[in-house]
Amino acid sequence: MSTAQRLLTDDLRQRIRAYFPRYPDRRAVVLPALHAVNEQLGWVPPQAVVEIAELLGLAPAEVQDTLSFYGVFKQDAPAGQVRVWVCRSLSCAARGGEELLEYLSQKLGIRPGQTTPDGRVTLEYAECLGACDFAPAALAGNLLLKNLTKEKIDQWIESLPSREDSMRKVEHGTTVE
Question: Which domain holds residue 114?
């Protein structure tokens, strides 16, 4: 594959190669490689699966098998700048989690699995976030939203940077959580 057609940059390829000495074989590097690509691109497109497989000396089906097992990886389209996982475990559901998921869907104008038109937020549901003592809970990027209420959801939405602010931060080398 020519460099012009590559989806994975040389830096990303080197980052994946850096895992090689840490794992017993190349197959064990599949999951860290998927995380690296997902972090860099915001998703793992089919072409990335082929390139990861090529880099690791595996069949693309082996990489795809791992990719499809984990719900954290999107393959159909890039995720929003922030992915929000709303917990649907028993504890969260008993404390109104389903209603809050519906409220958040209405406020963002999207359904779970979708991304806002401005690309800022992707809404997902999680079966469990392991935060039962803070139910209902959601995970927004790396931020755990505890004891959620409609008011807290409204505050979180208001705290999101605008698309323009987010793009300026990305251009200046800072990450947006």
Answer: 82-170
